[in-house]
Amino acid sequence: MHIRTATKGDLPAILEIYNDVLLTSTAIYDDQPSSLEERLDWFEGRVQQGFPVLVAEEGGAVVGFASYGPWRGRWGYRFTVEHSVHVDARHRGAGAGGALLAALIELAKEAGLHVMVGGIDAENLNSIRFHARFGFEQVGHAKEVARKFDRWLDLVTMQLFLDDGDQTRAA
User: Fold this and answer.
1) What pTM does this model have?
2) How far apart are CA 150 and CA 136, in angstroms?
3) What domains are defined for the chain?
């Protein structure tokens, strides 16, 4: 398993993984598949803002991707990011997700960030346990805030402190 920075050439594989997750799960609260143009806009936006986009590669094929970006748009939230990690269904449980999340956490620490947040469907107990293994703690549970597959969905918020909270470094 090799984790590396994504390139535009990875976007077709990222799109395929993203759309499969969107269409088959509640990990993404949307109902319309993304287009290659939308994924390109997302990718370029991340890069322009200085946020990472990573891929997990195995045998020359992209098997997962991850990124983080702003949690909220206001200035005061600049030390907090929200992340996402998605792995091809055929490769889940083989370590790609963990390798991607570990790499994201390290990059966030190197960037001087304070908190990483994840929004997880409350029924996705595997993802909740996965995040807990990395030290994320559940800090919120919003009931029936989304609707997909003809049912209401609850959103769990988990967070990880990335540093010791030293405010003297904050700019």
Assistant:
1) 0.93
2) 30
3) 2-161 (3.40.630.30)
